[in-house]
Amino acid sequence: MDKTKGNIESEISKALTHWEKTYLGRGSVSVKSDILRDMIIIVLRGILTPAEYSVCKNKEGLLSVKTHRNSLVESGLEELKQIILDITGEEVISFHTDLSTKTGERVILFKLSEDLQSKLS
Length: 121
What we know:
By secondary structure, the protein is of the alpha+beta class. The protein has helices at residues 5-24, 50-55, 59-75, 77-88, 116-120, and strands spanning 30-36, 39-45, 92-99, 106-112.
């Protein structure tokens, strides 16, 4: 059976949750993955701890949390790229991420070597 777009998106969400728990020590509350053209866009909700929200009340603390959290994710980038390759069969050519200290959401964008969405339609 060929994988559908929905199956692959669900598989990516599960794999990212597992990666967060094993690599970062804790997972997000929810993960939603979407394949759009040659990109995979992932929104992770509920990733900040109550202590991090508290530290984020001033600009210095906010920047510190963002920098620290981003460097943690970036340190596992090779593993993340491999997860995407294993699930989609597509190579990741670039990676972008940011974290909102207001909503506690992280957005991850993987830019792929090919248009995965059109391959799946």
